[in-house]
Each structure stands twice: as structure tokens, then as C-alpha cells.
Amino acid sequence: MQGILRRKVALAAVAAIAALLLSGCGYNAIQQKDEAVKAGWSEVLNQYQRRADLVPNLVATVKGYATHESQVLTEVTEARSRVGQIQVNADDAASLQQFQAAQGELSSALSRLLVVTENYPTLKADQSFRDLQAQLEGTENRITVARGRYIAAVQEYNTFIRSFPQLVTAKIFGFREKPNFSVENEAQIQRAPAVDFGTPAPSTPQPQPATPPPPAPAN
């Protein structure tokens, strides 16, 4: 009985020492940062999916007023379809680059569509269209925030596992650097793309006529 108890105590001591060693070499911190990256990526996917879900309603609304704009409507629909066909793996650089390119094509197609709507005042006055404007603008803002947080999380993770002693721990347990979004303009991730459905410009005040001088007093 005492032998069993001693073995349990010894195993507990070994487990405690192992936990201390793993903690001291950064294993726990690596796990935490890895989970932060995964959570950030889930939010990125969630916001991109939210935008993709808005596209069919947007296309249908525009089509009701702009039947002659079939080319730009087709471009948006096809770009949205390509986004939906990609099975992205965020840990694979080529897959992430393909995903980013497809999302960029959808952004460009949406921008061209919004430019076209400037020619249709009745469409811009439609309440459904204005509601979509608010939803799309909010989603673009959320995409910008989610991308920025993900980029920062990946940078922090990669920097951490390249530092000593985490470098040794990462190699032992198979933690590798993660690919990241490529940003041509670093300032771009700090602001959302403009989503403008044609807000009327403020009217310029008309110049007031000059006040006539008072009549001269009679002599």
C-alpha cells in the first residue's frame, strides 16, 4: 500500500516538474497565442461570409432598377461564386493567397457595381437599397477590424516562436510559422473601404443680393 502511495507521489512530482519546465520554455504561451490566431481567423471568415451573404440581395435589388447593367451584375455574382468555392487553409501560404485574391476580386466587383448605381436616382432612394448600404458598410468595417486583429495575432505568434527558448519548444512540438495576409499598403488595414451609395453633396449657399444703399436725404 505504501509502495503504491509513493509511486503516486512520485508521478505527481514528475508531472509538476514537467509542467514547470513546459511553462518555463514557453509551451503554454505558444498554445495561448496559437488559439488566439485560430479565434482571429474564425472571425475573419465570419465577416467575409457575412459580406457574401449580402451579395444576392444587393444584386437582386439593383437588377430591379438597372436591368441594362447585366455585365457588372454578372461580375459580382461570379466573383461571389468563386469566393464560395475556395476551401481555404490559413496555415498554407498558397491557399491563403488564393483566398485573399478572390476576396479582392469580389471587393473590386462590388465597387464597380456601386459606381453604376450613381446613374439610378430611383434606386438610391429605395429603402431596401439603403438598408443594404448600411449593412454592407458595417460589414466592411468589421472585415477591416477582423483582418487587422488577425494580422497582429499572427505577427505576435510568429515572433514569439522565433525567440529563444520558445524556438526550441516550437521545434520539439511541431509549431511552425504561420502565413499572413499580404498588405501592399500597411495603412490600408487601418481603414475600411469606402462604401458610398451616393450621398447627396451639401448644397452650396446662394449668394445674397447686395442691400441697396439708403436713399439720400431730401434737401
Give the gist of this structure.
This protein has helices at 2-24, 27-65, 70-85, 93-117, 121-125, 127-161, 166-173. With 219 residues, it is mainly α.
3D architecture notes:
The chain has 219 residues and is mostly helical. It has a single domain, classed as LemA-like domain (de novo design (two linked rop proteins), Up-down Bundle), CATH 1.20.1440.20. Helices cover 69% and strands 0% of the residues. Helix 2 (27-65) runs antiparallel to helix 3. The chain is elongated, with a radius of gyration of 29 Å. The protein starts with a helix and ends in a 46-residue tail after the last helix. Mean pLDDT is 81; it is low at 12-23, 185-191 and 195-212.
Which features characterize this protein?
single chain, 219 residues, mainly alpha, de novo design (two linked rop proteins), 7 helices, 0% strand
Ordered list of secondary-structure elements with their pairings:
Elements: H1 2-24, H2 27-65, H3 70-85, H4 93-117, H5 121-125, H6 127-161, H7 166-173
- In whole angstroms, the N-to-C terminal distance is 133 Å
- State which percent range the strand residues make up: under 5%
Number of domains: 1
How many helical stretches? Answer: 7
Residue ranges: pLDDT <50 for 5 or more in a row?
A: 12-23, 185-191, 195-212
Helix content: 55-70%
Q: Report the structural category.
A: mainly alpha
CA radius of gyration is: 29 Å
CATH topology, which one?
de novo design (two linked rop proteins)
- CATH class descriptor name: Mainly Alpha
Order of helices and strands: HHHHHHH
Average pLDDT confidence is: 81
Largest sheet: none
What is the total tally of β strands? 0
Second-tier CATH architecture: Up-down Bundle
Overall 3D shape: elongated
Name of the CATH superfamily: LemA-like domain
